[in-house]
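Model it.
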Amino acid sequence: MLIDIIGATPADASNYSKIVLYNGEKIRINYKYRRAGKELLLFIHGLACTKESFDDAWKQKSLKKYSLLSVDLPGFGKSGRPKKFSYTLDDHAGVMFEFIRPTRFKKIHLIGHSMGGAIAILLAQKDPQRFLTIISVDGCLGGTNNAPQQQTTAPTFTEFTIKLKSRLEKAKGTPLEKGYRLWYEWSRFSDPIAFQKSDESLIKMTRSGKIAEVFFSLPMKKIYFYPQYDGMPAILSKASNVKTIQISNSGHFIMNDNPNEFYQKLAKEISQ
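Modeled.
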């Protein structure tokens, strides 16, 4: 295999775990993987989410020729909760860099949602020649749109869940319901410390302008998907080297609210 497999079970042969050594600490990373073509799509989830954010990718005929990989970041989903880990965006990107280092894929497309979009940017910066495309899915850049995810202060885990429950009730029966319902379920698998520290790092780095600065400077093809309901971040309005694509009938969780349109357009972009 192109990726060392540890803990694979016959009952669910697409899900695996792997030990990554990072800064002297062993971190168990849980991931979902399908080997198909020579090009790899690496999916990175957002804050309080899991690798299941991208489950619909495995169902899309337009992506059948691609190898697919989605991961649970440290402290989220079924990955380990390392006590000494900083949970900064830089270290999340560092773990992902070590995770994919052994792979032989020469053509990798990075797809990151929300916080995962910021982590994907930092990952791409570590070895720009290795990645063909970076796709930010309503990723955090530091600009603003109408989304509540563009926050300015880090809530505690309890505050997060209380506000989310309220938003779920308000969104009941609307097209946003699916994405936010899933988000609430995924948040149950988030370590509170991982959530708080990741969120604090995210706010600090986007507020400083570093994430946007790195994104605009990356040499590979750059695409930003944004939802119809929340709109496009203002910071992208004058970005000449980033292609922006709207996905209809979607909120922040674009790939869950309208998976067919999202993945069809994603497949079209990476094939060009």
